[in-house]
Amino acid sequence: MAPDALLVEVAWEVCNQVGGIYTVIRSKVPATVQGWDDRYCLLGPYFPHQAQGEFEPFDEHQLSTLNDPFAGAVRKMRSYGYDVQLGVWLVTGRPRVVLINPFQVYDRLNNIKSDLWHNHGIPTPEGDDLLHQVEAFGHLAKIFIQTLTGEVVPPQRVVAHFHEWMTGVAIPELRRDQVPAHLVFTTHATLLGRYLAMNDPNFYDHLMQVSWLPEAQHFNIETAVRIERAAAHGSHVFTTVSELTVRECIYLLDRIPDAVLPNGLNIERFVALHEFQNLHQQYKSKIHEFVMAHFFQTYSFDLDNTLYMFTSGRYEYHNKGFDLTLEALARLNYRIQQNNVDGQVVMFFITKRPFSSINPGVLQNRAVLDEVRETCEAIERQVGERLFYAAAASSEHRLPDLSSMVDDYWKLRYRRTLQSWKTHILPPVITHNLYDDQNDDILNFLRRANMVNNQHDRVKIVYHPDFVSPSSPLFGMEYGQFVRGCHLGIFPSYYEPWGYTPLECVARGVPAITSDLSGFGDYVMQTVPEHEDKGIFVVQRQEKSFDEAAEELTNMLWDFVLQNRRERITQRNKVESSADLFDWKNLRVHYDRAYALALERI
Ligand code: G6P
Ligand code: 1S3
Question: Which UniProt keywords apply (predicted)?
Answer without folding.
Answer: Glycosyltransferase, Transferase
